[in-house]
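# step 3/5: fold
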Amino acid sequence: MNSSTTFQSIQRSRGARLRRGDQGPPPLDFSSSSHSTSGVAAHSQPKVCYYFDEQVANYHYGEKHPMKPHRLALTNHLVLSYGLERYMDIYHTRRATDEEIREFHADDYVDFLQRVTPANATQMVKTFSHFNIGDDCPIFTGMYDFCQIYTGASIEAARKLLSGGADIAVNWSGGLHHAKKSEASGFCYVNDIVLAILQMLRLYPRVLYVDIDIHHGDGVQEAFYHTDRVMTVSFHKYDGEFFPGTGHINERGNGLGKQFAVNVPLKDGIDDATYVTLFQTVMQSVMENFSPTAVVLQCGADSLGLDRLGCFNLNISAHGQCVRFMKSFGVPLLVLGGGGYTIRNVSRCWTYETSVLVDADLPNDLPHTVYHEFFAPDYKLHPTLAGRIPNQNTAQYLEEVMRTVLEQLRSIRGAPSVQMQEIPPDIQGFLDNDHEDEDVDIESDHDGLHSQTPAASRRNRPAKRAHRSEFYDSEGDQDDDQQPEFAALSRQSMDLDT
């Protein structure tokens, strides 16, 4: 019996107890093609708005860099070719202003982003290490313009929710979750997520951030680590070495934010049924114990199987099940992109998830677009992406992760400080970095789930964290475009990107 089957058996045996404790729904049956959210109440058709700027796809990180904004053009062409614009309001992106970006990012860092260009980079190279500029985060033409476009879309999407103009707002160009207050990180320069959440906190007392990127959402967690007004929940690969090296299960927040950072660390090769069961069980408990008034969902597609930098076995339908589940709660929802480096699969995934958000059924045969040959040889919306990586998530490990996370969530029931306040308090105080560290209870076990790691021990001093690279650390990335079957597609992608 494989680990997925074993884990589902454990879940079924615990189902009655979990339901009595209102912790989550029973496991999904993936034998059905209907992708039903078993036991989840349906809500009336939400109003959806969609943000896109054609220019955002034209920027280029570099010839061999895995981050390709061109994936956004593929996504938008599929969305429009499927006719999904009929079900939502389409908005052109407004660029974020310097003042808006400075609401989170440090003045000297914003000044640097504004001034640096490939032409003057050699004169400014001495500042690069200070702002973590390098192979992962290179200087490229129009870099600050690119940041303003994707950030402006996230800010406007958040404001559309605040005004009541939409129930769900979508910005696939956003979701750049690694950027810190004073430095770039992991292909991210401006943290549009933090800036969007700051907008939402002006009205919503409690905001939930959910991250299904394969990498830990460290920049967002770090920004809100000391507040109970934002709960951050991240499902990611964690072994202490995989970028960004954070996301240990015992990173739980400090001070007022104690227990409001939730991390679900996973190992290589997790599959559809196991991931969705874990996600739904955890998120049901999060919604019941935190009671968010708004949700931000980062849908990084590098957690799909066959991703260039990823190591999970998720198919697009399972990734979309997470979106469907969060939508089912009927809470104002901001949906963002994120990672994803096999761009034909990224565009298929985000197109499918757009259809989930507007309740549209899409045929599996892709409509013809100018990028049709990117999707060879199958030309399907749902290619088979699973099975490449052995599943290292044992039933025992997943059971321990679930038990630990659910215990953490039960401990915060009724705890948010603004729960009974009509007017949310100041939104800037908890962004200060001069908080005292607090001790974290660490226990050891044979899986190392609760062992203290260097990354975990440094988490409360973000300014002193050693710089890491997402792609250029030679950490065994799944580099699809170096394999013969992907070589032609990679060359075509590079030609279009340039």
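# step 4/5: annotate
The longest strand covers residues 230-237.
# step 5/5: archive (pending)
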